[in-house]
Amino acid sequence: xxxxxxxxxxxxxxxxxxxxxxxxxxxxxxxxxxxxxxxxxxxxxxxxxxxxxxxxxxxxxxxxxxxxxxxxxxxxxxxxxxxxxxxxxxxxxxxxxxxxxxxxxxxxxxxxxxxxxxxxxxxxxxxxxxxxxxxxxxxxxxxxxxxxxxxxxxxxxxxxxxxxxxxxxxxxxxxxxxxxxxxxxxxxxxxxxxxxxxxxxxxxxxxxxxxxxxxxxxxxxxxxxxxxxxxxxxxxxxxxxxxxxxxxxxxxxxxxxxxxxxxxxx
Length: 266
Known about the structure:
- This protein is mostly helical.
- It has a single domain (about 70-265), classed as MetI-like fold (Orthogonal Bundle), CATH 1.10.3720.
- Helices cover about 75% and strands about 0% of the residues.
- The protein has 10 helices and no strands.
- The protein has helices at about 25-45, 55-65, 70-100, 105-115, 125-130, 135-160, 165-170, 175-210, 220-230, 235-260.
- Helix 3 runs parallel beside helix 6 (about 135-160) and helix 3 (about 70-100) packs antiparallel against helix 8 (about 175-210).
- The chain is globular.
- The two termini are about 30 Å apart.
- About 25% of the residues are buried.
- Pfam families: BPD_transp_1.
- Belongs to the binding-protein-dependent transport system permease family.
- Probably part of an ABC transporter complex. Probably responsible for the translocation of the substrate across the membrane.
- Keywords: Cell membrane, Membrane, Transmembrane, Transmembrane helix, Transport.
């Protein structure tokens, strides 16, 4: 006799291979690595010239916080990252959607994007300094440009990967072109767009450090450059940890947006 005839509930399998969140596993991995590094540096198994003690790095964080230098360096970095990434990502998503929807725009812009995509963006920093000056403009421009190109590629790729069966179904129901774009194409492309944003924002953090190492008094990049020139490993690793935490924060924000916009996938 079947489960249905017996009145038994059947487990829902529509979610497929949806991963279950186990946040404590990530925390445990981080704690284990920190404890291992502390043990290795204290016992001499890891050279002090290679890796500082995590406890010393933590003490450096405390000194940065007490002196107020933490926010003096962090605030301008966040401002540059937010403004530059917002400009690059918004333009990149818009251009990517246009490329995905219109054949003439695709024919004109895809070769251009393919030409500029492989260029190392850090190599263009001197050019941006010439164009926009040594101040904030060149930093915003570098971050925006570095965020723009991968966002464009990810966006029009996501639009191309929307299931054409759904589009034909919308056409069969008499939906207008705009309704199909708004109700089928954009929601279907959103997972790919957000995945591309993860990569783009990670690139933006890398370019932020590079930009701040040239002509910036305050910023995480300037702090790391100063610590490196003095071979102050505690301060150097403190700056690296700040960048890592910034990357975790960006990933968490993208994850929150995914849960809000892509709840229909579950």
